[in-house]
Amino acid sequence: MTIVPPTFGQHFTEEGELRWLAGLPGLADRLLDRWDLTRDGGPWHGFVALVLPVRRADGTPAVLKLGWPHPEAEHEALALSLWDGQGAVRLFEHDPGDWAMLLERLHGDHSLLDEPIDTALDVIGGLIRRLDRPAPPRVVTLRDVAARMVHELPEDNEEEDFPVPPDLVEQAVAYCAELGPTAASRLVNQDLHYENVLRGEREPWLVIDPKPIAGDPEWGLIALLWNRWTDAVTDRLDHLVDLTGADPDRARRWTFVRAVENWLGAEEDEDNPIDPAAARAAAIAKALA
């Protein structure tokens, strides 16, 4: 049975990436043996992780997730262990050295992307409230991120020949300087969007693939704006504020900062002169400026 489908890892070109990709079959075999697992279907994958459906020794369905080592995923298992299956996928086993996790199996073909937008927002609003708790010490902090952005945003904008209007960058820098030092230390999933909430068995909907940061909950709202796009940016943000109990001012300003950051970080070239991600980030920033 195939371990690595040909569609996975096509964007990997560096020597280390290719070496990791080539080592996946051996890594999977070792973990299947160590955790007493049996393959139970063909592989799935996202952009940087391979997922193998398996069954545990007692017959419990699960998935073996093998992720490319990168900073955003470093504390994924830590967040899942703290949530302990309450509103999020349950973590059974974790090997930090191999960036591998054994997780409960959810319905990978049914996410909140398949639900009406009002239903999806209601579900996510409830999950954000349930998953809110103090962040553990090891997680990167929004205070540190904001302090770096004060310097990096204008420098990066200048290096890239000013793709973002300088006045908007200055506004984002001012917000970072003002809000960063007083940012909270809550466990925030900064990549919570509709495809990362799947149908479950023991609960109707469960969060997967968290990217944790210690900060203000308002920092994590923007992914719900640029996914399932609407031009009514402020209306949806206001609705999310109502659903989650977020602070309206911090929600607006942190969302603006993240929009500027992503507008600046979007990739545009001759083959892709108008990056849709950049266009959406720009629209959000302009709507909230």
TrEMBL record:
One Pfam family recorded for the sequence: APH_6_hur
Matches recorded under InterPro entries: Kinase-like_dom_sf, NH2Glyco/OHUrea_AB-resist_kin
Domain of life: Bacteria
Keywords: Kinase, Transferase
Biological-process GO terms, alphabetical: secondary metabolic process
Molecular function GO labels: kinase activity; phosphotransferase activity, alcohol group as acceptor
UniProt xrefs under SUPFAM superfamilies: Protein kinase-like (PK-like)
The protein, known as: Streptomycin 6-kinase
Lineage, highest ranks first: Bacteria, Bacillati, Actinomycetota, Actinomycetes, Pseudonocardiales
